[in-house]
Amino acid sequence: MSHFQLALLLGMTVALGPLALDAYLPAFPAIAREFAIPHADVGLTLSAYVATLGMAQLVGGPLSDRYGRRNILFIGLAVFALASLMIALADNLSSMIAWRVVQGIGGAFCAVSVPAIVRDQVGGQEAARLFGLIGLIMFIAPAAAPSLGALMLALGDWHWIYVFLAAYAFFLAVVLQLALFPRLKPRPRATTPVKTLVTNYVLVLKHRTTMRFVGIQVMCFSSMMLFITHSSFIYQEWFGLSNSAFSILFAANIGVMAALNLINRPLLRTFSSVVLLRVQVIIQFVMLVGLVSVVLLDGPLWAVAGFIIAAVGCQGGIVPNNMANALEFFPHMGGTAAAMLGAFQFTLAGAISALSSAYGGEALLPITLSMLACSVGAVLLSLGAPAAVAREKAAEQSA
Question: Which domains does the chain have, with CATH numbers?
Fold first, then answer.
């Protein structure tokens, strides 16, 4: 299977997560009105999904190592589809949050399988390029998601958004069964006992270089999650934009992500992925400093949106470079390492976004300051990353 074909199918699969995150963002005001709750409380449904998406990967990763990527991925799709239909029938916030948790379990089993499949096939710089190509393809989902949500709202109501998500999960199952798994080279299943699974997680946790990249992923993703959680509030409540205008500005984030992803691919032929990662993390930090400055000066919409788009867009280069480095040192435990990365990324980001909804979701400055604080952490971790990778590879060669 060519890299493009593999990236296309895996990109369609990993797009399930952004669709579940972003498609219902324009519906936040409608959900708040229907449930008679504050706008910020709707963000708890997003935080619940994201946190579960992280924790459940700790289970899904080792299971995919032991029982095969296909089995775990298909179980995830089935759980995701069922939960989506139940969310469509929810008539109160508690019910919606509960089924979003179940949906997160299904999404986690899908999400952890994709980087593990990549690591099964390639490694090193080649993995970074494949992750980049997957990211480029999957950018279509978050770019289109708010527009799809707005379309569903125009045709009916927010419940139809989750009917669409269920249908997409079923479609994925059919496509992957016919086009992906019959063409992958067979991979021997692990027969690791529970005790050794725990030991494997300890090995990942003790690997200082890998955990450095996990930390970078957590901080950068948390910064983006803070924006996603409050994007409806920022654009629709604070600046009073319509659903269509909100969708356009949200899609602009994805456009910049795609552009930086395209630029990153040829740069990998000249520069190492870890150097490119550090540069892009620093650029994101500078953009967030600009965003906080504009908010402090009570700047106009175009300035706030411009810095947000530039900062969030940096994820297009950060994610593929960081994932390739995070998984590089565990070629035989791809599912376990990917699970650890996903668990930290989604669980901590979900917790941070939930706290921001509870304590700072009704003002713009606390949101932007929280985004900047996360970026500071990413910069500090990224500054020593090249040296850490060099030391680790030298130690492996000497061993």
Answer: 3-398 (1.20.1250.20)
